[in-house]
Amino acid sequence: MPQNEKILSRFILFFVFPVLFVYAAIFCNQRIYGDAAAYLFTVINTEAFNINHMRPSAVFVEWIPLVLLKLHAPMQYVLYGFSLGECFYYFIWYLVFTRLLKAPGYGIAMVLVYLFGLRWNYFNPVTELVLAFPFAFLLAWFWQQPPGKVVWWYVNSLALSVFLCFSHPLYVIIIPLLFTFLFLNQLVTKQNIVFGVCFLVLGIAKYSLLNNYEKYAVADGIQTLNIAHAFSHLFSVATIIDLVKACAGILFLEIIFLTYLYKTKQYKRFGLLSFFILIYFSYIWVKYDTQYPNTYEPIERYFFIIPLIIGVLISPYINLLSKTQRNIVIVLTVWHIFYIGVYGHFVKQRYVAFDYALQNSMQFKENKILYRNENYYYTQDKYTGHDWTMCFESLLLTATQSPQHARQVYIKEILPDTFYRNLGENDFLLSYQFSLANVSRLNKHYMQLQPSAWRMANSDSVQTGLDSIITKIGIAINPPKTLRVDEYHPIDIKLTNPTSMPLFSGTRKQYRGICYLWKNNLTGHIEKGKHDTRLMCDLYTRIQQKITLYGPSLPGNYTLILGYTTAGPFTFIPFNNSFQVAVK
């Protein structure tokens, strides 16, 4: 094996994949949100492969969970199998290219594409565009082998093309681009013309079979393009920094590959690739820039085509990299692995309210819980992400404790009030699009929802005579020992109610929450905290959530006192607690 391929292969085998397997375990729960949760939920309840929109590549992350289901493994093991199975799938492909096909450049480039094209995509392991991309490498590798029997060439080319096109509609763009680039100097041959006609028929057939979801993705936003806004947004400092951090690896590969094409006087290929990258990037950015950076989903999903194209085309040239270029690729690979970990931490923080909602739902005997919008989003200034819109996540994650602990947790305002009035005790939400199913349809071995009314976690009740309850409320926090003046510091708080009387979270207008006071130990001066936190839900037994502390305005030694607050007019009833904090 040549030097570059030997060094990069060892780096990938002994560093990249071990870290990816560790990530797959660490971020297991975070990777089943959204579409991934919907796919896995369907696999669990049908105990069969789930193929949505006729996209067959989904099965590659479903077979390990399916085997575990047949063995009746615990739910948490099924979730691990789902996450680890995706990493195992790419590891197998890496071995296929490097060992079986003796094409290590393709295996190396495939791993680079996977890393350089990921951020949000890593947390949606059922994106069929990404799942199918090793087959694009296989198709390009096949096209660059010595020509064999014509019939065999047609069969392989069309079989791989059909699979790719049905895995994701965007491969209708990718395949002809790869074909044109690879056969640019000999496009007009009998073999190529026949394949071109066959592929054209395939593309038309695929487009005619697109369902409403896929057609909407193609057409949505085309009539509302705002080019001026898109480019002013693109050239902002924050956006440029963010895109460079997320795309550093693929930008480097683009530059060195286009430079190589230009220096070797492959001007047609240079022009074709440059034109495609420019036009495609511009279209996707203009189409989706209004959603960025609140959600990376559409931007990053569709941008994956660019690293895919670059990676496939650069595969045969990996060994031509200079020593410096190879070392830069290694550094950028380490950066992207680190960046996935950093982004994973961001994802965990993004879903912290969701995780608390799942924990807090356990205090209710009912197993279908509605949270009021403003109470669920108490930690955020704006709504981000799509963690609730598929409504399967809560069932999967709560069922990891036991089938009896399964809960469906949902935000009430996502659907109109009229929808909930017609819900039966046997109903649970099958999708956010007003779709219901009977609780008997659930796989009882993993999720045992019982017929019950839907329960509001927030009762919209205002109670009096609170002092007798508040003094008995248990409170557990881990406050900082030291804090700077006006420093922001989020902390977890656990409230326990040993009484038979619930502590209500108040109404929409007159909310109840947690407030705090700073008492200066030297002067006795009391300063109200700058931030009240809504109570996430009614407290019957025990709840947990985050609160936000801000340091007082002057340094000194302080006593931190937390209490129950009511809004309009403001009142403060202290819990039975006090904590010493030094403010610098």
Topology:
Layout: H1 3-26, H2 35-46, H3 63-70, H4 75-100, H5 104-116, H6 128-131, H7 133-143, H8 150-167, H9 171-182, H10 190-208, H11 212-219, H12 227-234, H13 237-263, H14 267-288, H15 297-303, H16 305-314, H17 323-350, H18 352-361, E1 368-371, H19 373-376, H20 393-398, E2 408-411, H21 417-421, E3 427-431, E4 435-438, E5 455-456, H22 467-470, E6 474-477, E7 482-483, E8 488-496, E9 512-520, E10 526-528, E11 533-534, E12 542-550, E13 556-566, E14 571-574, E15 579-583
Parallel strand pairs: 1-2, 1-5, 7-15
Antiparallel strand pairs: 3-4, 6-8, 8-12, 9-10, 9-11, 9-13, 13-14, 13-15
Helix pairs in contact: 1-4, 1-5, 1-17, 3-4, 4-5, 5-13, 5-16, 7-8, 7-16, 8-10, 9-16, 13-14, 13-16, 13-17, 14-15
How would you sum up this structure, described in words?
Strand 9 (512-520) and strand 10 (526-528) form a beta hairpin. The chain has 22 helices and 15 strands. It has helices spanning 3-26, 35-46, 63-70, 75-100, 104-116, 128-131, 133-143, 150-167, 171-182, 190-208, 212-219, 227-234, 237-263, 267-288, 297-303, 305-314, 323-350, 352-361, 373-376, 393-398, 417-421, 467-470, and strands at residues 368-371, 408-411, 427-431, 435-438, 455-456, 474-477, 482-483, 488-496, 512-520, 526-528, 533-534, 542-550, 556-566, 571-574, 579-583. The strands form 4 sheets. Strands 7, 9, 10, 11, 13, 14 and 15 form a 7-stranded mixed β-sheet that branches. Strands 2-1-5 form a 3-stranded parallel β-sheet. It starts with a helix and ends with a strand. Helix 4 (75-100) runs antiparallel to helix 5 (104-116) and helix 13 packs antiparallel against helix 17. The chain has 584 residues and is an alpha+beta fold.
